[in-house]
Amino acid sequence: MFKLVYFSDCKFTTYFEFANITLDFFYHETAKNSTIYFCIFVRFYKILKTMNIINKTTGLTFGYILMAYYVLVNLIVFFADYTLFVQSYFTIVNIVVVLILGICCVWITKRRLNNLITFKEGFTAFFIMIVLGFLASYLSKYILFNFVNPEAKIVNNELMIEMTRKIGEDLNLSQAEINEKISVVNNNADDNFSIKTLIFSFAQDLLGSSIAGLLIALTFKNRSEFSTPKAH
Q1: What H or E segment, with its residue span, contains residue 34?
Q2: Quick one: residue 16, left, alpha or beta (phi over 0 = left, psi -120 to 50 = alpha)?
Q3: Nearest to 85 by CA among 164, 26, 138, 147
Q4: Residue ranges of E strands in the chain
């Protein structure tokens, strides 16, 4: 995990605080003290209140759409063929959906701001969207694989072993190297859908998608962060 740096004279302070609260949650997830959760929630709520109402509402709207998508797709795939969760094309489809919704989110935010948007405004809306969507995705996976059908974890782990072996063979790795990678998969078999692993995956997805969000926000940006409204 990385630590974000605060800049008191920077216009991006709100976003860094927003991201910091999210990362604080990752560090304290295993803590038993409910007071910590309450304090984080209060700070998160106060930061949301200080954001531009258009950014917030647009980000929340698309966040709810992404949440509905992930929950619905995870349910359908789980009960139809839960082995699809380990297939690369399933991940690619989800990435494409996130990018399409993210572009629409920033574009609509720009339209609602009279076609004038800063980098911060665009990225804020995108970031809110992916936080809500990924939370729904990993929470639904945790419930499905740990409570609905725990045996699915075993099947998916066996598939991951076969995929690891096949990838190793395609890369012309030695048998010793392939066995070492398979051993790593076996050692993590019971933790693939644990809270700790899912939170780590959530953080990775959040970081990776944030990079895409930065590029999308930069693409749509047409107003400076430090510009002042012209007097009429």
Answers
A1: helix 34-50
A2: alpha
A3: 138
A4: none
pTM of the shown model: 0.71
H or E stretch at 76:
helix 53-81
List, for residues 117-176, the tens digit of each pLDDT value: 999 899 999 999 999 999 999 999 999 998 998 888 878 777 877 877 888 877 877 777
Out of 13-27, 183-197, 208-222, the most confident range is 208-222
Angle of helix 195-220 relative to helix 13-28, nearest 10 degrees, comes to 170
CA dist., res. 54 & res. 49, Å (int): 11
pLDDT band for 214, please (50, 70, 90 cuts).
very high
Nearest to 141 by CA among 195, 186, 95: 195
Q: CA–CA separation, 64 vs 138, rounded Å?
A: 15
Q: What's the CA gap between 29 and 34, in Å, rounded?
A: 10
Neighbouring residues of 148: CB distance < 8 A, sequence distance ≥ 6:
78
